[in-house]
Amino acid sequence: CGLDDDYNISRIERYLTVIYDSGAAPIIVLNKTDVCDELDSIMSELETIAIGVPLVPISALHANNIDLIEEHLNPGETTALIGSSGVGKSTLINQLLGEEKMKVNLVSEEKSKGRHTTTHRELILLPNKSILIDTPGMKEIQLWSDSDSLTQSFSDIEELSHGCKFDDCSHKTEPGCAVLQAVDDGQLDERRYQNYLKLEKEMAYMNKRKDQFGRYLERKEQKKFASVIKQAKKIGMRKRDR
Fold first, then answer.
1. 34 with 64: CB under 8 angstroms?
2. What residues pair up with 57 in beta bridges, in sequence order?
3. Every domain of the chain and the residues it spans
4. One-character DSSP codes across 41-109
5. Which residue, 59, 81, 120, 123, has most beta carbons within 10 Å?
6. Which tens digits make up the pLDDT trace of 106-130?
């Protein structure tokens, strides 16, 4: 993410949920340290919500700390870059390549928004033989995940839930909910709790759509099978009548 107006911790939680669902290992790259005066507080905040995830602060424009990213790019392994438009992915790739291969557009200083420099996914072979996937800038990313990925992204809430009175606690209105108690006590940030509920609701909706589509395909296959059986019976009757 960019350390300008692009920085959004709720969006990072969403990205982490999607990445965990894919089976990949996340790394959070914090670009544009040259325009950020609150790096220490941002790092501390991220450490509380991205537990165990490497945080790499860089300035791609000035080639600061690029070597810290290279430590995570191993020969023969594939890494995908995801993030908003204007976050500096193309500039970072140019630094990793050591040449100006990717087109870079200017970012509005007022809105910290960039144009979609990358409009398609592209495989890039880096000098150390690792592979990088450059993706177009995303305004938003939809969830298509299971509950396990949400549990990984919000492992602190999962840990708190072990203290709930009821095993099937939804952490919304139940008495004896350890998660709600943590919010009341200030142990769990209200914003993080609300974002957890939002992503959980969105995930439930998407899973419902998947189930509906699955049932549609199943009915379609059943109708096709019934049609084949019906046709086979007709052919059998014709043969007997001859």
1. yes
2. 30
3. 9-104+116-138, 146-235
4. HHHHHHHHHSTT--EEE-BTTTTBTHHHHHTT--TT-EEEE---TTSSHHHHHHHHHTS--S----B-T
5. 59
6. 554 444 444 445 556 788 999 999 9
